[in-house]
Amino acid sequence: MELGLQLPACPTPVGSYTPTQRVGNLLYTSGALPVRDGELAYPGVVGAGLSVADATEAARLCALNILAMVRAAAGSLDAVEQVVQVIGFVRSAPGFAQQPKVLNGASDLLFAVFGERGRHARMALGTAELPLGAAVELSAIIRVTGRAEGQRPNAA
Prior knowledge:
The structure is a single chain. By secondary structure, this protein is an alpha/beta fold. 25% of the residues lie in helices and 28% in strands. The protein has 2 helices and 9 strands, in the order ββββββαβαββ. The strands form 3 sheets. The chain has a 5-stranded mixed beta sheet with strand order 1-2-9-7-8, covered by helices on one side.
């Protein structure tokens, strides 16, 4: 990547699901955790032991894992036409209300990678717990080019 980013391998699901599901030209991702080299990089509760800066890096790492899922499903990041929506959960201490600031780590990365195609709608939610004790979890909806495998063109 031109930005000097290294995409990880597509994350392995931790349950009975697939990393992505394609419907037409929309690619839905499962939740991505801040995992690096198979290990959770950012466990903890934001606002109680984990700083906003660290949580922002966790969100950025989640976005890199989303990009790895997209690349694995679409064959290349060049297939991305638009990042439609990002949904993010931040494991938050009581009273913590900076979830949008945390998720800017992901949003800023997506904009840096795709430019205007990376601008997206977003939800930033606080929660008490996340899988594996992660600080952040993201999912996304991405519009990609081409037909999904097995998809038939519309009849005229």
